[in-house]
Amino acid sequence: MATCPSITSKVILTVIGVIFWGAAAGLIFVGAWVYHTYNNYSHLTKDNLTLIPAGIVITVGVFLFILGCIGCLAAVKEHKCVLAVFFFILLVVLVAEVTAGVLGYVYRVDVKSAVKDGLTEAVQKYQGGPGSDEQVDYLQTELQCCGIMNASDWLNGTEWSKSKIHAGLVPQSCCIKFNCTATILAKEIYMDGCYDKLQQQFLSKLVYIASIAIAFAVLQLLGMICSCILMCRSQEIRYETLGGPNSGLRV
User: Fold this and answer.
1) pTM over 0.70
2) Are residues 74 and 51 part of one domain?
3) Which CATH number covers residue 165?
4) Could you tell me if 216 and 93 lie in one domain?
5) Judging by beta carbons within 10 Å of its beta carbon (0-12, 13-18, 19+), is residue 99 exposed, middle or buried?
6) Could you tell me the residue range of the domain that residue 157 belongs to?
7) Which of 90, 128, 220, 251 is most exposed, with the fewest beta carbons within 10 Å of its own?
């Protein structure tokens, strides 16, 4: 007869399996969002360090989808092999999540430096053409910013400032409203730099990602505990007495 801990474990495993399906969709979405964001700013960075955690997150999402299927199967069948596989994959995913967090922390300074260097180079070479210039315009419009640290960066030794046509002006993407005069002294342009705005955007998303990661780490630990309980129960069933408690026969 199933005991209360084993029934509870089966219910929890089933719920965790369903949650993992939703989590898989969420993680894959987050990873895809990071790739999409990086693609918009790819010409502004000299390195792809930000893609390392994103790749791990997407991989974890795929694992979680498979894990959800295995978790539900393990809860229904209580097969020792399936439970062991479920436990092992949970452990692998947990290690991968910790690795992603550690990599994000270790490379945080390198990422900041790469972003700032790439942004500086893009602004200095900006001439209003296609490629990286379009991405600078996209960045300034999207984040409502102008220049690297502030709008005056456009006047300090950039290819843009060397042109007589652009003397004392900033790109139109710095304008608060479309087609402004774009003069550095006007109140019609964004004055905040893009570097700090970009940092704030990533940090705000990082808080949500970290909170979700911690929540799922707790779920994974709970799943590992439940799978251990069910594995112990399946071991006990193998040694139940055949023919009743007084038959003396055991297998």
Assistant:
1) no
2) yes
3) 1.10.1450.10
4) yes
5) middle
6) 112-195
7) 251
